[in-house]
Amino acid sequence: QVQLEESGGGLVQAGGSLRLSCAASGRAFSDYAMAWFRQAPGNPGKERDIVATINWNSARIYYADSVKGRFTISRDTDKYTVYLQMNSLKPEDTAVYYCAASMPQNGVGYGSSDYDYWGQGTQVIVSS
After folding, report:
1. pLDDT tens per residue, range 29-66
2. DSSP letters of 7-62?
Protein backbone atom coordinates (compact mmCIF):
# COMPACT_ATOMS: atom_id res chain seq x y z
CA GLN A 1 0.00 0.00 0.00
CA VAL A 2 1.25 3.48 -0.91
CA GLN A 3 -0.24 6.80 0.14
CA LEU A 4 0.45 9.86 -2.00
CA GLU A 5 0.08 13.54 -1.18
CA GLU A 6 0.67 16.33 -3.67
CA SER A 7 1.66 19.89 -2.87
CA GLY A 8 3.02 22.96 -4.61
CA GLY A 9 0.10 23.99 -6.77
CA GLY A 10 -1.13 27.53 -6.99
CA LEU A 11 -1.78 30.54 -9.18
CA VAL A 12 0.98 31.74 -11.49
CA GLN A 13 1.23 34.04 -14.47
CA ALA A 14 1.97 32.69 -17.91
CA GLY A 15 5.69 32.20 -18.35
CA GLY A 16 6.18 31.48 -14.68
CA SER A 17 7.26 28.34 -12.86
CA LEU A 18 5.98 25.99 -10.19
CA ARG A 19 7.40 22.87 -8.60
CA LEU A 20 4.97 20.17 -7.58
CA SER A 21 5.91 17.60 -4.97
CA CYS A 22 4.41 14.20 -4.30
CA ALA A 23 5.25 12.74 -0.91
CA ALA A 24 4.82 8.99 -0.66
CA SER A 25 4.44 6.82 2.39
CA GLY A 26 4.38 3.08 2.59
CA ARG A 27 6.75 0.32 1.83
CA ALA A 28 8.99 -0.14 -1.17
CA PHE A 29 8.48 3.30 -2.70
CA SER A 30 11.75 2.90 -4.59
CA ASP A 31 10.28 -0.03 -6.54
CA TYR A 32 7.29 1.87 -7.90
CA ALA A 33 7.02 3.62 -11.24
CA MET A 34 5.60 7.10 -10.73
CA ALA A 35 3.71 9.52 -12.91
CA TRP A 36 2.00 12.88 -13.05
CA PHE A 37 -1.38 13.24 -14.70
CA ARG A 38 -3.63 16.25 -15.08
CA GLN A 39 -7.29 16.94 -15.56
CA ALA A 40 -8.40 20.24 -17.05
CA PRO A 41 -11.34 22.15 -15.56
CA GLY A 42 -14.77 21.62 -17.02
CA ASN A 43 -14.00 18.04 -18.02
CA PRO A 44 -14.75 15.96 -14.91
CA GLY A 45 -15.77 12.96 -16.97
CA LYS A 46 -12.72 13.04 -19.20
CA GLU A 47 -9.87 10.67 -18.52
CA ARG A 48 -6.85 12.23 -16.91
CA ASP A 49 -4.06 13.09 -19.31
CA ILE A 50 -0.55 11.78 -18.83
CA VAL A 51 2.04 14.47 -18.20
CA ALA A 52 5.21 12.57 -17.32
CA THR A 53 6.40 9.22 -16.04
CA ILE A 54 9.56 7.98 -14.32
CA ASN A 55 10.56 4.41 -13.65
CA TRP A 56 11.96 3.03 -10.42
CA ASN A 57 15.60 4.03 -11.01
CA SER A 58 14.98 7.19 -13.09
CA ALA A 59 16.50 5.52 -16.16
CA ARG A 60 13.29 5.74 -18.17
CA ILE A 61 11.46 9.06 -18.36
CA TYR A 62 8.59 10.03 -20.61
CA TYR A 63 6.94 13.38 -21.30
CA ALA A 64 3.79 14.23 -23.14
CA ASP A 65 4.49 16.29 -26.25
CA SER A 66 2.59 19.22 -24.79
CA VAL A 67 5.08 19.61 -21.90
CA LYS A 68 8.31 18.34 -23.42
CA GLY A 69 11.13 20.86 -22.94
CA ARG A 70 9.20 22.74 -20.25
CA PHE A 71 8.54 20.19 -17.50
CA THR A 72 10.99 17.94 -15.67
CA ILE A 73 10.07 14.92 -13.57
CA SER A 74 12.46 13.60 -10.94
CA ARG A 75 12.43 11.47 -7.82
CA ASP A 76 14.35 11.44 -4.56
CA THR A 77 14.23 7.93 -3.19
CA ASP A 78 15.71 8.92 0.17
CA LYS A 79 12.94 11.49 0.66
CA TYR A 80 10.17 9.29 -0.79
CA THR A 81 9.24 12.18 -3.06
CA VAL A 82 8.58 12.75 -6.74
CA TYR A 83 8.80 16.21 -8.24
CA LEU A 84 7.45 17.97 -11.31
CA GLN A 85 9.30 21.14 -12.18
CA MET A 86 7.11 23.20 -14.48
CA ASN A 87 8.65 26.10 -16.38
CA SER A 88 7.32 28.43 -19.07
CA LEU A 89 3.80 27.73 -17.94
CA LYS A 90 0.92 28.40 -20.30
CA PRO A 91 -2.78 28.99 -19.60
CA GLU A 92 -3.51 25.60 -21.17
CA ASP A 93 -1.49 23.98 -18.37
CA THR A 94 -4.29 24.95 -15.97
CA ALA A 95 -5.55 21.73 -14.40
CA VAL A 96 -5.64 19.62 -11.30
CA TYR A 97 -2.39 17.67 -11.20
CA TYR A 98 -2.34 14.16 -9.78
CA CYS A 99 0.53 11.98 -8.67
CA ALA A 100 0.21 8.25 -9.31
CA ALA A 101 2.14 5.08 -8.47
CA SER A 102 2.31 1.79 -10.32
CA MET A 103 3.11 -1.44 -8.50
CA PRO A 104 6.50 -2.93 -9.41
CA GLN A 105 5.05 -5.88 -11.34
CA ASN A 106 3.13 -3.46 -13.59
CA GLY A 107 5.97 -1.13 -14.48
CA VAL A 108 5.58 2.16 -16.32
CA GLY A 109 2.30 2.86 -18.08
CA TYR A 110 0.88 5.75 -20.05
CA GLY A 111 -2.79 5.62 -19.17
CA SER A 112 -4.58 6.28 -15.92
CA SER A 113 -5.73 2.66 -15.71
CA ASP A 114 -2.08 1.56 -15.53
CA TYR A 115 -1.66 3.12 -12.09
CA ASP A 116 -2.71 1.67 -8.78
CA TYR A 117 -2.45 4.50 -6.26
CA TRP A 118 -3.41 8.16 -6.56
CA GLY A 119 -3.08 11.35 -4.59
CA GLN A 120 -5.90 13.82 -4.07
CA GLY A 121 -4.55 16.31 -6.58
CA THR A 122 -3.22 19.86 -6.46
CA GLN A 123 -4.67 22.75 -8.43
CA VAL A 124 -2.53 24.71 -10.87
CA ILE A 125 -3.94 27.88 -12.42
CA VAL A 126 -1.98 29.76 -15.05
CA SER A 127 -3.28 33.23 -15.83
CA SER A 128 -2.70 34.93 -19.16
Report:
1. 888 999 999 999 877 677 899 999 999 999 999 999 99
2. E--EEEETT--EEEEEEEEETTGGGSEEEEEEE-TT-TTSPPEEEEEE-TTSS-EE
